C-alpha cells in the first residue's frame, strides 16, 4: 500500500507555478527524497502535504485517507503526519523528555518517551534542555518527537542543513537506521544530491515544479531519464556522437546502446566511466590524449584530458597513479554512458 498518493497536484503563487502537475506514490515504509535545485518547489510540496498550503488542484492521500483536494482540506494536526523542521523547532524551555512527549496522552507518555529516547540513542539525556545538546543530538530529539505519536508519515525539511559537514555523514546513517527501526514512511526535502542518493530508497528529482524522474538512487544517477537529470546529478562531459542500429559511435569508441532514436547524438560521459592508462595494449579502441589539469581530493582525483579533437574529458579515479600535466595517456570507457538527442532537437 502507498503511504502517500499524490495526483495532479498544482499550486501557484501569483505567476509562480511552484508545483505544476505532480503525481507521486511513496510505498509504506520507504524513505523518499525530494531532490532539486533552489526554487523547484520542494518546500511547497512539503507544505501542501503537511497542510500548511491548500492545493489549487489535485489530491493528496496519506495512506487511504484523502487529506487535501476534492473539496477536502484536513488541518495539519489531523493528518497523522510528523514533521522535522530545518531548525528542529524544539521548545527551548522544555526538557528533552518533555519535548519528545509533547502531545502524547499522559498515561503512556513516560514509557513511550523512554522507548523513543532509547531508539534515537539518547537514553539518560531526558532531563537535559535542548541548548545543552549537540546539533546532531538536537536533531535526534526532533526526530523522536516527530515519530512519537506513531504517525503514518514523517516529513523532514532539509534535515541535515544545520549540521557541519563532518557530522552530516554520520548523522545521516543514524537517521536512516532510526527511521527503519521505527518502520515509518519518510519524505525528506534536500538540494544535496549526496544526501538524497545515500539516504533514500527512492529519489524524486524535481525541476520547475515537476517531478522529472523518480527511481532508486542507482536508476536516477545511472540511467537518467532526461538530459537535465543527467547534468543535475553528478558530473558529465558531453561529446558528439552518431547513433546507428543499436550502437553509438563517438570519439572514445563504439558502444552498444539503444536510446530509441537514430542520427546525431550527445554522449554524456561521467568522469568515473573514463579510465586512463600508460602505453597501449588492452582490448577495444583506445584514444590517446594529454593531461591538461589534475584536481586532487585526497581519496580520489579528477584528471582533465585533451582529446585528439581538442575537446576535453574528465576522468575520476583513486589517487594512484599520480598523473601530471603533459602526460600522454590512453583513454578508455569502462562504464555506462548516456545518450540524448542533441540540444535543440525534438
Ligand atoms: P529552496 O530549496 O530554495 O527552499 P524550493 O525548491 O523549496 O526552494 P519553493 O520554496 O517551493 O522551492 O518555491 C517554489 C517557487 O514558488 C519559487 O519560485 C518561489 O519563489 C515561489 N514561492 C514559494 N512560496 C511562495 C509564497 N508564499 N509566495 C510567493 N511565491 C512563493
UniProtKB/TrEMBL annotation:
PROSITE patterns hit by this protein: ABC_TRANSPORTER_1 (PS00211), ABC_TRANSPORTER_2 (PS50893)
InterPro entries linked to this entry: AAA+_ATPase, ABC_SmlMolc_Importer, ABC_transporter-like_ATP-bd, ABC_transporter-like_CS, Mo/tungstate-bd_C_term_dom, P-loop_NTPase, Transp-assoc_OB_typ2
Keyword ATP-binding appears in the UniProt entry: yes
GO molecular function: ATP binding
Keywords (A to Z) from UniProt: ATP-binding, Nucleotide-binding, Transport
Boundaries of every ABC transporter domain copy: 4-233
Keyword Membrane: no
Protein's UniProt name: ABC transporter ATP-binding protein
Organism annotation: Svornostia abyssi
Amino acid at each position: 500500500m502507498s503511504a502517500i498518493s499524490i495526483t495532479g497536484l498544482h499550486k501557484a503563487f501569483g505567476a509562480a507555478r511552484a508545483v505544476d502537475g505532480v503525481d507521486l506514490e511513496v510505498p509504506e515504509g520507504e524513505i523518499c527524497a525530494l531532490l532539486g535545485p533552489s526554487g523547484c518547489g520542494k518546500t511547497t510540496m512539503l507544505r501542501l502535504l503537511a497542510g500548511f498550503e491548500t492545493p489549487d488542484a489535485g489530491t493528496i492521500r496519506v495512506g487511504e485517507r484523502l487529506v487535501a483536494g476534492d473539496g477536502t482540506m484536513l488541518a495539519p494536526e489531523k493528518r497523522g503526519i510528523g514533521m522535522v523542521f530545518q531548525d528542529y523547532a524544539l521548545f527551548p524551555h522544555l526538557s528533552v523528555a518533555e519535548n519528545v512527549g509533547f502531545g502524547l496522552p499522559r498515561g503512556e507518555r513516560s514509557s513511550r518517551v523512554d522507548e523513543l529516547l532509547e531508539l534515537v540513542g539518547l537514553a539518560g539525556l531526558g532531563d537535559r534542555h535542548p541548548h545543552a545538546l549537540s546539533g546532531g543530538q538536537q536533531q535526534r530529539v526532533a526526530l523522536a518527537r516527530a515519530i512519537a505519536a506513531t504517525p503514518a508519515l514523517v516529513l523532514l525539511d532539509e534535515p541535515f542543513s544545520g549540521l557541519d559537514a563532518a557530522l552530516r555523514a554520520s548523522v545521516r546513517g543514524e537517521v536512516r537506521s532510526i527511521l527503519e527501526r521505527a518502520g515509518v514512511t519518510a519524505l525528506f526535502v534536500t538540494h544535496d544530491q549526496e544526501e538524497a542518493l545515500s539516504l533514500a530508497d527512492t529519489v524524486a528529482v524535481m525541476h520547475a515544479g515537476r517531478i522529472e524522474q523518480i527511481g532508486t538512487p542507482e536508476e536516477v544517477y545511472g540511467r537518467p531519464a532526461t538530459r537535465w537529470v543527467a547534468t543535475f546529478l553528478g558530473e558529465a562531459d558531453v561529446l558528439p556522437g552518431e547513433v546507428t542500429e543499436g550502437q553509438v559511435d563517438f570519439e572514445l569508441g563504439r558502444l552498444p546502446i539503444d536510446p530509441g532514436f537514430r542520427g546525431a547524438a550527445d554522449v554524456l560521459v561521467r568522469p568515473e566511466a573514463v579510465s586512463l592508462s600508460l602505453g597501449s595494449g588492452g582490448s577495444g579502441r583506445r584514444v590517446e590524449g594529454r593531461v591538461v589539469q589534475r584536481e586532487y581530493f585526497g581519496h580520489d582525483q579528477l584528471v582533465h584530458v585533451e582529446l585528439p579533437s581538442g575537446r576535453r574529458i574528465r576522468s575520476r579515479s583513486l589517487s594512484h597513479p599520480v598523473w601530471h600535466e603533459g602526460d600522454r595517456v590512453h583513454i578508455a570507457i569502462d562504464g555506462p554512458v548516456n545518450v540524448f538527442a542533441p540540444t535543440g532537437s525534438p
